[in-house]
Amino acid sequence: MPSNPTNFIKIRGIKRRKLHQTLTQEELEQLADDYYTIFVKNRDYSHVPVNLRQYIQLSRERNYLMLTFLLYQGVATNELTTITTDDIDLIKATVKIRANNRTNERKLHLKAEQIGALIHYQQNIRPKLLEHYTQETDLLFLQSAKPNQTIKPNTPPSNLFNTLKIQILSINPHLTKRNDEDLIKHSLLMTIDLDHLENLNQTREMLLKDEYFETELLFKSPSGDGLKWIIKVDLEQATHQEYYTAVSNYLEQQYNIKVDASGKDISRACFLCYDSEAYINPRHTTK
After folding, report:
1. CA atoms lying within 13 Å on the CB side of residue 27
2. How many CB atoms are located within 10 Å of the residue 61 CB?
3. Which of 35, 113, 130, 173 is the most buried (most CB within 10 A)?
């Protein structure tokens, strides 16, 4: 990927924000694929309270479609919230983006993979979201509502993107590109990926009570039958890979737990997912 052309531009006067490192087309497509695989296709709601399952499912299906508009058409979030059902033309595979005080009206072509997602959303997801609105609205993307909650059509859409932002955040944000060579700064945190655990709760308690490693964050993996264990590491004592190997060997010998070896890559992404019983070290929550 070429370097950002604005990095070395300096303009006198008001200080302007420069664009951060941009993603290639392949990286954008991979981000959409990863989101769909983790949060939509391989969803498992068995660990989610029954009354919240539909709420989470509808939100994820909607979020995936919103993400494709952000990535493929490059629309801004304020434009995304103004798209109506009439702005979508499935026959011509276009979406109309309305004019605002900064841009003119324009029509953008949809990608082939968006058509099926759009049809599914309009026929199966949006009607269920609309049930919680106090009156009809033609907005395409509707907010999610928990059971017995209602939404007014003029409710500000500020929370529409909150969950999506959290879901696509990686544990380690200090990367210009997601590979080891482009690491800017290590977070001094390590994610230990524990898959297909026979006794999830027992393993969780053992990790939290471990005498050698202090837990920073612990939550269920997207599959629902594993854990993501985040601990601190001291890179003055050993490299990231050496630490990972040592911790993996310790867990196997101490608790008979097999660790996913792919996690030794520094740049490996770790997506946050819903877990009502997630543990966060009190040090990070005390004001």
Report:
1. 10
2. 22
3. 35
Give whichever of 105-114, 179-188, 269-278 has the largest mean pLDDT: 105-114
Q: Which residue has the higher pLDDT, 271 or 128?
A: 128
Distance, CA of 43 to CA of 224 (rounded, Å): 9
pTM of the model: 0.56
Sheet with 94-97, edge to edge strand ranges: 88-89, 94-97, 106-109
Closest by CA position to 248, among listed 263, 233, 238, 234? 263
Reading the block at residue 42, the tokens are: 């391989």
- Distance CA(64)–CA(81), nearest Å, equals 15
- Per CATH, domain 180-284 is 3.30.450: no
Handedness of CA 12, 18, 24, 29 (dihedral sign): negative
3-state per-residue secondary structure call for 200-224:
HHHHHHHHHCCCCCCEEEEEECCCC
Q: Half-sphere exposure of 277 toward its Cβ, with a 13 Å CA cutoff?
A: 12
For residue 252, the 8-state DSSP code is H
Considering only the top CATH level, what class is 25-167? mainly alpha
Phi/psi of residue 193, nearest 5 degrees: -95, 115
Domain ranges of the chain: 25-167, 180-284
Question: Residue 166: pLDDT above 60?
Answer: yes
Task: Select from 265, 212, 204, 211 the least CA-distant residue to 234.
Answer: 212
Report the Cα 259 to chain-centroid distance in Å.
Answer: 23
CA atoms of 5 and 197, how far apart (whole Å): 47
Tell which residue, 151, 134, 135, has the closest CA to residue 58.
Answer: 151
Cα–Cα nearest to 93, from 74, 73, 110, 76: 110
Q: Are 133 and 150 in contact (CB under 8 A)?
A: yes
